[in-house]
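[audit] Reproducing an earlier prediction to check determinism. Same input, same settings, fresh worker. If the tokens differ from the archived copy the diff job will pick it up downstream; this log only records the rerun itself.
[audit] input (293 residues):
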Amino acid sequence: MIQELWDGSYAGSGFRRFLIHDPKERIISAPILRDRIAHHAIMNVCEPVLERFQIHRSYACRIGKGTRAAIQEAQTLARRHAGGYWLKTDVRKYFDSVPHVILLDKLERRFREPQLLALFARILGGYQTSEGRGLPIGSLISQHLANFYLAHLDHHVNRRCGVGAWIRYMDDGAAWAEDKFVLIRLREEIRTYLRHELGLELKREPVIQRVAAGMNFLGMRIYPDRITVARSCRTRIRASVKRLDLAFVSGQMGEADYARRIQSVFARLLWREIKSRHLRERLLDESRARVEW
């Protein structure tokens, strides 16, 4: 494999595909072990270059960032614009829709080595959801390239649109402003930039709402004065707990495995900034009733 990377013959060996529900149905395409090692080797070299292009408020696939930091920053921005409005955006079928040609053009502006660019082209060509489009969910390289691709939208919003309160976690973006019409203009600017510069479409009409009403973001409901668990996330957690309970009661899962997986489900609810005490108590009561029965 090392020799293949050096002589330019490496192209990948395919994917192991499986279906998950998180909460919607997704196809995960995980590279085999050999390719995962190659991807780590490639990103050890390329990640610092891609990282330098990220804005401060981009939180996916970055050291020191992540979901919790994104949620905390979203509440900071909500407090700062408590009397204003928020805009929430989401890209339609993002990973399936990334155009390889435009992505490679963006990469050529960051990397000058023809051999590396040819390697990226071969890796991208090894996975397509439609002609010349698509990145596999489950690949280290695709996660970093997907985050890099939408960083161009971040720079456009910050430099061209006059909105400083913009945050993004992969294809989930949000902005805050005191004036509703600033966000209406921003919504159209984002739609136009995605369509004409990145070959992407928004999933649905982006919502603009008062900050005081709260905003769903990364499974949480963000208010200026509190953070609660969003209804869709509550439903998903309750279904996960019920599924684990039934597996334990039926003997399909041992006690140690059950305890570990239940703890994982509850982990986010234990964050100090999340108000979830009553939800946790209800879930535990429901779980205890099923297990005892």
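[audit] rerun output stored. Observation attached for the diff report: The two ends are 54 Å apart (CA to CA).
[audit] end
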